[in-house]
Amino acid sequence: MTAESSASPGGFEMAPGAAMFRSVDALSSLAAPVPPKAPGRGLHRFANPGRFLRLAGALQPWLTAGGLILTAAGLVWGLVFAPADWQQGDAVRIMYVHVPAAWLASAGYLALAVCSVLSLVWRHPLADLAAAEIGPVGAAFTGICLATGSLWGKPMWGAWWVWDARLTSVLVLFFLYLGHIALIRAFDDPTRGYRAGAILALVGVVNLPIIKFSVDWWNTLHQPATISLTGAPSMYLGMLWPLALTALGYTLVFAALVTARTRAAVMERRIRALLMAAAAREDGAVQVAA
Amino acid sequence: MTHLPYIVAAYALAVLVPAAYGLAAMRRLRLARSRLAALDPRPARREARR
Questions:
Q1: Is A16 helix (H, G, I), strand (E, B) or coil?
Q2: Among all residues of chain A, which has the CA nearest to that of B28?
Q3: Number of domains in chain A
Q4: What Å distances lie between residue A95 and A4, A13, A81, CA to CA?
Q5: Is residue A13 included in any domain, yes or no?
Q6: B2: distance to nearest CA of chain A, Å?
Q7: Contact of A92 with B1, CB cutoff 8 Å
Q8: Residue A231 lies inside a defined structural domain of this protein
Q9: Residue A176 domain flag
Q10: Average pLDDT, chain B
C-alpha cells in the first residue's frame, strides 16, 4: 500500500472503519481526488480538512500576535496620546473602539454572505463550518459596536438610544446574526441548518448598503462617514493613525477568532464521524454475534 | 479627562468581550485536539515525529 493510499485525503491517516467514516463525513467525501478539469477544483482544495488545519495552524499564531499587538498599540495611542476633540472632549476616544467594531460587524456579515454563496453554489463544506463560526464572533462585535455607541451617545446626545436610521439598521444586523446562529442549530440534520442559515445570510446582505448609506439617505443624529475609499479623510492624522491601527488589529483578532473556532469545528466534526464509525462497527459486531 | 466612566466602560467592553471569546476558542481547540488524539492517535503521533 502506498503512502498516498494509506492516508485519507484530509491528511489524516485512515482510522479502522474508514469506509463507514467516509460515508458519514462530508468533509472527507468532498476532499476525495477530483478530475483535473472539474469545476470548483481550486476552491475544494481547501475543503480538505488536513490541508485546512495545516494552513490555519500555521496562520493562527501570526494572526493572534499581530492582532493583539496592533490592537494594544492602537488602543493605548487612542486612549493616552491622541488629542481630545475640540467639541466632544475626551468622549471622542470611544471612537477608537466603536468604529473598528462597526466596520467588523459589517465586514463579518459580508464574510458570512461569501461563505453562504460558497456553500449554496459549490457545496463547500468548510464554508458551512466557517459561516457557523463567523456568526457568534460577528454578533459579539456588533454587540460591542451597539454598546460602545450607546456609551458614546449618552454624553453627546443625552440619550442611550435613539431610533436613528444608522442605529436601527445596525440593530437589525445584530438580530440577523442572532437569527443565523439560531437557525443553523434549529435542525436535527446539520446540512439543512446550514442551507437555511445560508439563505438567511444572503437575504440579510441587503441590510449592509442600508447601514452604509443610512446617514446619507435619511436625516440622522449619527454623523456621516469621515473616511472614504475615494476621498481624503476629513480627520486629523493624529486621530486617524490610532484608528487605523485599532481597525487593522481588530480585523486580525476577528480573523484569529474565526480561524481558531473553525479549526475546532473541523476537529469536532472528525470526532463525531469517528464516534459514529465506532458505534456502527459495534452494531455490526452485535448483529454478527446474534 | 472628561466622560471618564463612559470611556472606561467602552474600552473594557472592547477588550474583555474579544478576550473572553479568545479564551473560549483556545479551550475548545485544546479539548477537540485532545479528544481527537484519544480517538485516533495516529495523526497526533505523526505530528509528534516531525
A1: coil
A2: A264
A3: 1
A4: 54, 50, 14
A5: no
A6: 5
A7: no
A8: no
A9: yes
A10: 85
